[in-house]
Amino acid sequence: MSSSHALTILPAHRTLAVNSGTSLIEALVDHSIFLRSDCCGRGTCGKCLVQLIQSDGTKKETSACTQQIKSNLTIAVYLCHTDNKEVVSSVAVKNPQSIYGDDVVSRIGAIDMKRDSLDHLQKIVINAIEW
Fold first, then answer.
1. Backbone angles phi, psi at 93, to 5 degrees
2. How many CB atoms lie within 10 A of CB 26?
3. Is 99 helix (H, G, I), strand (E, B) or coil?
4. Angle at Cα 13 formed by Cα 68 and Cα 30, nearest 5°?
5. Is residue 131 scored above 60 in pLDDT?
6. Taking every annotated instance into account, which residue ranges of this chain make up the domain 2Fe-2S ferredoxin-type (predicted)?
7. Residue 104, Cβ neighbours under 10 Å: how many?
């Protein structure tokens, strides 16, 4: 049985309960916080780079896809300029497509039942990204 740990997301100070041994990116997805990870979890693309703040205040940059949850963590999620690492923005939004189901299979089923759902699914996710 895995133990539960607290994960705090900054700057919003949102605290999540996550299971020990889960990757950080999986824990975030479980709570509708989505990071890009083009390397399929190998930690090579740098798209899911996050800054962890340990309980003693020390900071560590790591890939969310390779970081395992072992203790209580605080994570700062920011959009940064790749050249100078300046913080551009910080925001998280729940995938609006979840109204058709929490998983891709459910969404495919919704499209099978009503074909124009595909256009709607595309529009609502684009609107969320552009927001």
1. -140, 140
2. 16
3. helix
4. 45
5. no
6. 5-81
7. 10
Strands 59-63 and 73-76: unpaired
Which of 58, 60, 63, 74 has the alpha carbon at shortest distance from 26? 63
This prediction has a pTM of 0.57
Q: E strands along the chain, which residues?
A: 4-10, 14-19, 49-53, 59-63, 73-76, 79-80, 87-89
CB 39 within 8 A of CB 47: yes
Domain ranges of the chain: 4-89, 96-130
Nearest partner of 92 among 24, 33, 8, 30, judged by Cα? 33
What tokens were used for 50? 């996050």
4-40 tens-digit pLDDT: 888 888 877 888 888 888 888 888 887 878 887 777 7
The CATH superfamily holding the domain 4-89 is Beta-grasp domain (3.10.20.30)
